[in-house]
Amino acid sequence: MPFDATQMKDWQIAAEAEKNMPTPEEYIDLLGLEKNELIPFGRTPRVDFLKVMERAKDKEDGKYIEVTAITPTPLGEGKTTATMGLMEGLGKRGQNVGGCIRQPSGGPTMNIKGSAAGGGNALLIPMTEFSLGLTGDINDIMNAHNLAMVALNARMQHEYNYDDATLAERGLKRLDIDSKNVEMGWIMDFAAQGLRNMIIGLGGSKDGFLMQSKTGIAVSSELMAILAVAKDLPDLRDRLSKIVVAYNKKGEPVTTADLEVDGAMCAWMRNTINPTLCCTVEHQPCFVHAGPFANIAIGQSSIIADRLGLKLFDYHVTESGFAADIGFEKFWNVKCRLSGLKPNVSVLVATVRALKMHGGGPTVVPGRPIPEEYVKENLGLVEKGCENLVHLINVVKKSGIMPVVCINRFFTDTEAELALVKKVAEQAGARAAVSDHWGSGGEGALELADAVMDACKEEVDFKHLYPLEMPLRQRVDMIAREVYGADGVDWAPVAEEKAKKFEADPFYADFSTMMVKTHLSLTHDPTIKGVPKGWRLPIRDVLVYGGAKFLCPMAGAISLMPGTGSNPAYRRIDVDTQTGQVTGLF
After folding, report:
1. How confident is the model at residue 336, as a pLDDT?
2. Residue 282, annotated as binding a ligand
3. CATH number 3.40.50.300 is the correct assignment for the domain at 61-120+285-456
């Protein structure tokens, strides 16, 4: 029987469900693993990626299902909840199903967003471990990333203090790093706005090199992006060596390999290639692997975990960050291109409440009561907001996939509102299913599971939006027009100058185009909802991730270090000192 999600908090549901979650030994049977393919780590073991892939290399892949959503609003769409619910629904249908989601950052978990474990009866467990570090991937990435910064600052200090002869005696050659042109900063896994910009090296000549520096949140690190796209350990090692840490005074890149720190960074990250194994509250297995930013990096769980899941499960469900204009676009044109995998179906998650906001509903302010438009029937707002849903259905269809719309049911939705969304989705050429996984778990997701299984029977003519040979500016223009609905692109002089340089240099020919844009709108302006017309996308700069091999055109300002709000989650998180149970997570 499902838990009463209207009366129990997520952490309480998780605590009850965890009493009967699979043991590592049961996971071996559940996934058909050999004993030496599971790496013990308490209740959250890792799966040995290299061993499983070698044994199962000739096994046919299962069905590949991606989950995305309409444009996010403060009211939420529930992608992770829908991902868990779909897995539970397929499990209720007796299918061999599993999935993969991203690891949550401590910043959102301790702030306003929460841990992204799903919710209600569509929840990932063990919730405490999932929310508080899991098996240490983010910690390993922080250590590897910050080691590169330690190497950079130490090298700058020594080059400042010693002449060339002394450097040579110590086996070093002068890199002549430009302290005003440093690409990397430090990282930590909290939302700490006070560390966005800082001065380091204060003190004497032995206290490091005096310079301006910065701090980003851990999941914004290029190392996290590399983990998401690496195919195996050799690929990870190679990419780590190509990270651009800074530039010298001639404007030439200084890499981690130049600093001779790339091998040690890989040593810190050697275990991160093995996905961590968790499960839903109904005990369908789910990997947790990688957690890169979605609005500046790829925003996907890893290629490694998807390759693994497709060998172990008949249906493998993977989640993309943010809406279809960002998450699905990067899944479609970057992740699938790099992995060579072809999806069978994309699930587009929508809620009645979010559609009402896109239809012109009033602004929602955290901490204040939700306006009555969102809790009472209003077919006019729903119908207008469905323009955003239809636009994103059409985006998915351009890939050759016919999407399934998951109408993530909320208890205030009326039957007329749900029927209207379903009708609009079907008229746009998509399958549609109302799903009550939050309230009823797998039983509430049977309609969704059936729609997905039905869609998986269809042949998919999957194709990328643009060829890899297309120049950068043309790619950006195509994404802006075909995905966002813009009338074109306006390049700032500095951005256009960089783009021309990248287009002329064969070194960047196979770099992926990783758009940087707000997730809260189809446009660059987060305040604009729905499907705006008559606008152009401004590109102000282009960032380079040399190891991940990303060129990142920036539409608007994106901070790599979020801020902590005035009413953060950590105010309500505690530990029961009698049982050790963590309380207050959501």
Report:
1. 97
2. no
3. yes
Residue limits of CATH 3.30.1510.10 in the chain: 137-268
294 is catalytic: yes
| Active-site residue, from 293, 332, 438, 502 | 438
For the chain, the 3-state helix, strand and coil shares in percent, each to the nearest 5, are 40, 20, 40
Q: Is 93 a catalytic residue?
A: no
Q: Which of 11, 46, 69, 79 is catalytic?
A: 79
3-state secondary structure of 272: helix
Given 46, 63, 102, 242, which residue is catalytic? Answer: 102
Annotation says 55 is catalytic: no
Q: Is 79 a catalytic residue?
A: yes
Active-site pick, 44, 68, 81, 518: 81
Q: Please give the CATH number for the structural domain made up of 472-554.
A: 3.10.410.10
Whether 376 is catalytic = no
73: annotated binding-site residue?
A: yes
Q: Is 462 a catalytic residue?
A: no
Element (H, E) at 476: helix 472-479
Q: Say if residue 166 carries a ligand binding annotation.
A: no
Predicted local distance difference test score (pLDDT) of residue 295: 72
The pLDDT value recorded for residue 114 is 83
Is 80 annotated as contributing to ligand binding? yes
pLDDT along the chain (586 residues), means of 10: 90 94 93 95 95 96 98 89 98 98 92 88 96 95 98 96 94 95 96 94 92 95 96 96 97 97 98 97 97 85 97 98 94 97 98 96 83 95 98 98 96 96 98 98 98 97 96 98 98 97 95 94 95 97 94 88 90 93 90
16 annotated to bind ligand: no
Query: Would the annotation count 369 as a binding residue?
Result: no
Determine which one of 294, 430, 449, 486 is catalytic: 294
Whether 552 and 502 have beta carbons less than 8 Å apart is answered as no
What confidence score (pLDDT) does residue 560 get? 86
Phi, psi of 568 (to 5 degrees): -75, 160
User: 137-268: what fold?
Assistant: Domain 2, N(10)-formyltetrahydrofolate synthetase (3.30.1510)
In terms of DSSP bridges, do strands 285-288 and 276-280 run parallel, antiparallel, or are they unpaired?
antiparallel
- Residue for token pair 């072809």: 342
- The residue annotated as part of the active site, out of 209, 328, 410, 550, is 410
Report the C-alpha gap between 460 and 466 in whole angstroms: 18
Could you tell me if 287 and 275 are in contact, meaning their C-beta atoms sit under 8 angstroms apart? yes
